[in-house]
Amino acid sequence: MKIALVHDWLNQIGGAEDVLDTLVKLYPDAPLYTSIYAPELMPSHFRAWDIRTQWIDRMPGIHTHHQPYLPLYPLAWGGLDLSDYDVVLSNKSGFCHGFRHDDHTLHICYCLAPTRYVWQLDGYIDRERLGKPVQMALRPLVEWMKRWDYAAAQRVHHFIAISSDIQQRIRQYYQRDSVIIYPPVDTTRFQPVPASEVEDYFLIVSRLIPYKRIDLAVQAATRLGLKLKIGGKGRDLERLKAMAGPTVEFLGYVPDEQLPGLMARCRAFLFPGLEDFGITPVQAQAAGRPVIAYGAGGALDTVLPGITGELFAELQVDSLATVMDGFDASRYDPAVIRSHALKFDTQVFNEQITQFVERAATDFQQNRLTRTHRYSQT
Q: Which is nearest to 362 in space by CA: 153, 6, 108, 155?
């Protein structure tokens, strides 16, 4: 079975790239098609992969400022023909599901999200703080991009959603059904510590950018006088520091080797933004710690109220502060919390993805042979 992998772009690191890394390990002989690739911005081991870019990769400055080129991505992907492959597995949040193929190629789309800057443009503009020139260029093109994106989605044979929220959006925007396979989380790195080692601080580990809504946690902790440690870097750092009181500590980048201990010793992990899935809450739960999350998006799949943490109802400081005030971490059993996290382990993902691909490929080939036989009889 000849397989290819497809990914939107390789110029930044995030959850999408974590998924891609796992897929490449599962299918090491599969070439990877992407729009742009900036080796200097990606992990060094990516350079050993068979990465194949498109003409858009040569556009000036695109590796560091790809947003202005968004209207060109449908043209780039629409010109790529992958009919030489038996199976193509796309890892999609943008337009990479729009490549071309013939009736002999099976396309399975692991959908991280329907294209946000098409279906949720205002939210994307706010999230990325896009400048007026980019906004003015995007808005007139959105209707055309919606039509293109919808048509591309109809050429996908199978959609896999990363969460219940994404499954609902696939149905809403693409009018397609999907199955859910949660993204891979390496839970083996995280282990609970004895109760005597748990400390009295809340924890956030995240990129410090506006849509993560870390401002809610900073203001709530400051108001309540609760200790909050924040790990990570980003363009929102100075704004967050300006609103933080003396109980809020900014740790900067947290090295991988320090993260498990930091999570295992926290009173609770905070996840105040709206996310499609969210890997860090699962990591914290693998370390046996409860999570306080905004009750929407991927958190609805990963946080069990009263068992592995709590959900707050509104993206407001008061709503989060109400849950944080008097939060009793001793009410939650670390063993039960960790057991729940293991449902999202990388090994579970590996088994579910490979079984899905094998089953879908077998069914696809059998159906194609049946169609060919029927045609030959007419």
A: 108
11 & 122 share domain: yes
Are residue 148 and residue 212 in the same domain, yes or no? Answer: no
Q: State residue 375's pLDDT score.
A: 52
Both structure tokens of 71: 């209207």
Q: Are 85 and 105 spatial neighbours (Cβ–Cβ below 8 Å)?
A: yes
Whether 22 and 132 share a structural domain: yes
147 shares its domain with 254: no
Q: Can you give the length of the chain in residues? A: 378
- The strands making up 158-161's β-sheet, listed across from edge to edge, are 51-52, 32-33, 3-7, 87-92, 106-111, 158-161, 179-180
Whether 100 and 224 share a structural domain:
no
Domain boundaries, position 328: 187-344
Distances (CA, A) of 11 to 125, 160, 253: 19, 24, 19
The CATH number covering residue 234 comes to 3.40.50.2000
The reply to whether 192 and 325 lie within a common domain is: yes
pLDDT band at 327 (very low <50, low <70, confident <90, very high): very high
Q: To which H or E segment does residue 73 belong?
A: helix 73-78
Torsion angle defined by CA atoms of residues 54, 57, 59 and 65, in that order, rounded to the nearest 10 degrees: 130
CATH at residue 143: 3.40.50
DSSP assignment, residue 203?
Answer: E
Q: For residue 48, give the DSSP letter.
A: G
253/239 Cα distance (integer angstroms): 17
The domain tally of the chain equals 2
What are phi and psi for residue 193, nearest 5 degrees? -110, 165
Provide the terminal-to-terminal Cα distance of the chain, rounded to the nearest Å: 29
Dist CA 32 CA 89 (whole Å): 10
Contact 75, 57 (CB under 8 A): no
Per-residue pLDDT for 330 more than 60?
Answer: yes
* Residue 50 burial (CB count, 10 A): 13
In which band, very low, low, confident or very high, does the pLDDT at 127 lie, cut at 50, 70 and 90? low
Is residue 179 within a helix (H) or strand (E), and if so which, with residue range?
strand 179-180
